[in-house]
Amino acid sequence: MKISRPQPATIISIAALVMASTGSAVAAVSFARNAGAVDHKSAVGNGATLSHAAGKLVATRAKGAGKGTIAAKYLDLGGVAHGSTSTFGQSVPVPDNTSSVPTQIGGIPGLGPLTATCADQDSTPGIGDPQTTITFSNTSGDVVNQSRTIGGGNPAIGAVAANTQSTFTINGSSTFELHLQRKGTNYFVRGVVRQDGKGTTAAACTVYGFSLAVG
Which of 75, 82, 143, 187 has the fewest Cβ atoms nearer than 10 Å? Predict the structure, then answer.
């Protein structure tokens, strides 16, 4: 039996098939090696050392209080300001025909406390008309710069001398903002004063808001 010589077209077809199959195998191996990579960068777990994580993606925390976040050790925070936030909320009953004792609603070490006092504006016995006074006491031993805004008014900008107080009074309901600054410390306060129960024996001054300290 005589075997005929393959035609050129057949040889070309076989060669193309071999090359295509080989390419698929190489691609499969490459995909397997890089299955966990993004843009050709492999990922490491959140507990990896900095040396092991260098040049790789870092996974977020899988559990705990920081779940879904990246550990600070992998982030360059040298040029980022550091601060802390806090909230406050107080409802102070109006003493009939007098004022309450100051109630601390905020403050920051190195600057001084922030307090609220509730007073009765109506001299009629048994009828309360809440009036709220906010006081910043400068205990820093140095001058503290201050900007204060009540409601939609223009800011009052000035300075609070050492060992003195800065106060402002809101007769009804309104908002207020404070920006206090000394050296490298800035303290921001955004609050609300609400007049509750005016004309009743259950009148009260309600003060709430939040503060941000940046140093």
Answer: 82
Strand pairing report for 174-182 and 144-150? antiparallel
Enter the DSSP assignment of 155.
Answer: P
Query: In this structure, are residues 213 and 201 in contact, taking their beta carbons and an 8 Å threshold?
Result: no
Q: Which residues of the chain have pLDDT under 70?
A: 1-41, 65-66, 72, 74-82
CA dihedral 35, 37, 40, 43 (to 10 degrees): -150
Start-to-end CA distance of the chain, whole Å, equals 96
Report pLDDT digits (tens) over 67-102.
778 776 766 655 555 678 999 999 999 999 999 999
In three-state form (DSSP H/G/I as H, E/B as E, the rest C), the secondary structure along 97-110 is CCECCCEEEEEECC
- E strands present in 22-164: 43-44, 57-58, 83-93, 103-108, 112-120, 130-137, 144-150, 156-160
Q: Give the closest residue to 136 by CA, choosing from 189, 210, 60.
A: 189
- Nearest-10 Cα torsion for 153, 158, 162, 165: -20
Q: Which helix (H) or strand (E) holds 122?
A: none
- Say how far apart CA 215 and CA 212 lie, in whole Å: 10
